[in-house]
């Protein structure tokens, strides 16, 4: 499902946070939104969901998400926020089932299929052993995977993830990114994610969009965006950029001498 933004502008508290942002995400591709703290990345994702009013046009599969009812939106787009509020007393399984809410009739109960989908997602995220555990008794990384489980249970064709790997160790980072990529390839999901780990972004995304000061500073293939000069200019960081085995860039921080 294609996603398009044209001339997006968002103001918060009377201050421009995004200005003139254009974005095209082809169906079945993965775009990573990168940029320094405060650049507007999370705001961009909320605008894609139709949850941040602003100027310009937003379409997902040709439809304006701002015009959708919550149930319709939930079937079209699954979203994980950067800092989700979790009901600490709820079990991981019941929380994952919340992802099925848009399929459950009003005043109805979840079906056997809803429970099967939730169980399958927990299995794929290696969370089955935590299914009966309340969310308040999970580690930070386990909580983050539970949030992803709820989103994947929605089985929406578009997945929008705000910093999905921040609390994860390197093994779980790889596992989550691989799972998302498998879903993209096998089920044709369209993925947009913010991510601070630039090497990880470059390894998985088809395209990067670099936001800086609310504007698009660069966009394109990872090797074209993740250059030493771009990182210095927009992140004020010194890095070495090496070419990985598949031609994708690998960044290593370099201490100033
Ligand atoms: N609800 C809000 N009201 C007012 N200003 C906001 C609000 N949310 C974000 N901002 C401001 O908008 C700018 C962009 O914020 P945003 O969260 O989109 O940045 P980000 O690129 O996701 O940052 P980070 O990497 O730190 O998560 C920041 O200057 C932030 O202070």
Automatic annotation (TrEMBL):
Keywords, ordered alphabetically: ATP-binding, Nucleotide-binding, Translocase, Transport
Alphabetized SUPFAM superfamilies for the sequence: P-loop containing nucleoside triphosphate hydrolases
Domain of life: Bacteria
Any Pfam family matching the protein: ABC_tran
Protein name per UniProt: ATP-binding cassette domain-containing protein
PANTHER family for this protein: HEMIN IMPORT ATP-BINDING PROTEIN HMUV (PTHR42794:SF1)
Gene3D superfamilies, per database record: P-loop containing nucleotide triphosphate hydrolases
